[in-house]
Automatic annotation (TrEMBL):
Residues 3-381 form the FAD dependent oxidoreductase domain. Residues 493-521 are annotated as: Disordered. It comes from Treponema vincentii F0403. It comes from the Bacteria. Residues 426-479 form the BFD-like [2Fe-2S]-binding domain. Residues 505-521 have a biased composition (Basic and acidic residues). Gene3D superfamilies: BFD-like [2Fe-2S]-binding domain, D-Amino Acid Oxidase, subunit A, domain 2, FAD/NAD(P)-binding domain. Signal peptide: none annotated. This is Glycerol-3-phosphate dehydrogenase.
Amino acid sequence: MYDVIIIGGGVVGCAIARELSQYRLSVALLEKHSEVCEGSSKANSAIVHGGFDAKPGTVKARLNVRGNELIRRLAPQLQFHFKQIGSLVVAFSDEDMEELKKLYDRGIANGVPELELWDREKTLAEEPNLSPETQGALFCGTAGIVCPFGMTYAFIENAVENGVELICDAEVTGIKKIGSGTGTDGAAVQTRDGAAQTVTAQTSAQESGFSVTTPQGVFTARYVINAAGLYADKIAAMIGDCDYTILPRKGEYRVLDKVCGDLVHHVIFQAPTKMGKGVLVTPTYDNNLLAGPTAQDIDDREDTSTTLAGLNKIDSSAKKAVPSLDFRKTIRTFTGVRARPSTGDFMIYASKQAKGFIHAGGIESPGLSSAPAIAEYVAELLRQEGMALIKKPHVITGRKGIGQFSAMPNKERATLIAENPLYGRIICRCETVTEAEIIEAIRRPAGARTVDGVKRRVRPGTGRCQGGFCTPRVLEILSRELRLPMESIPKSDKGTEIVLGKLKNPVESKSRSGDSSKHSR
């Protein structure tokens, strides 16, 4: 029996895993996908919000401000990519200026530092590519941009190094309260390396908890944390909690080429509406430009399609703020689905139906910004529920990130190539990603197991050709490192394998090729 099972390997679940890994606890994280950082965690605006938007007194408001502070502290410690570039909420009318004053007052009430109201001259001096219709802006100096994949991977890698067990392809299909009487539950599970092992859990009246059913087996734990993102309400219903419903909201985005990355230097918002913070324009950490999202309430939680209507909405709305945007420079479009709660606030609380069950649901924006603060809060809820949180004597608090070859000076590159010639083999030409970086992404704790997992860790396939050149080479490296046939390597999840089979026997094909070359002479 584990002390804690976390359901969901998004940024919130992984942040919770890292937080709990500091204590003398046995912790398992169950993720339904083949990798962590799927769902909303992989498809969002990649912004660390300052915290002025949330209504004062809400859980969102408190955890956004605290989360912003923690991310700025953790980024160098865990070596994930974060830039504190600040944000601007831009006004185009007198009504918008009144809205900015309300946001400023709200931010002050929430305890947000570095807030300023700028006039037209100051705003256009800082961002000359904004619309000439600009009347002013609200500046937030603590806002920034982050690599959401990198932050999530940093959390889970650090957690695994400190003893957390990550179990993927483990969608939760049932949860039961256990502990009345005495019994033994045995479950066959599969570890990350594919080896089978049997976990036997002895439960008694004194050691009550939960049994969690997945395709990987049945797992038991004294406490369960629900961080299941878009499906948090479905998980909650398994134990009889129906306090909230997830109302999925779809947001479409455009990613522009790096030649557009310097068009703006802050995160550019427009005055918000009841549908959200509106269409934004922002540089990304890797110097692309991101425009979006739209906001469309949907029924299908898996609807990640992009539409002509949605992209046209981005174009018209984004150009209101930045008229010189050239959407012909788009290299990718994508859609994320936000886990909007029916209550309007984060649903982070201990269940009244089942003692020991903690909810971390309804985590929409600013969930990415709030993730490490949510983890702190969940740990405190566990303590209040009776969990003894005793710090380990030796905790790995830091993490060494994967060096980015493309960002290194030539002298450093030459040194690396001399030490490891695989740094001299470029796999992704668009992003200058080397074979050595890809191998490290696979071999790390909680390392890549899919093509998309490699892509999100070290960026092959994120450039202009979107993987047209490098995907076969990434497949070959994954196959070799994982000792699996290429037919078994998925793009993202099981069922998304890229190679379905071989047309010819390689030896036979080579032999025939040799015969042909003889005849051609």
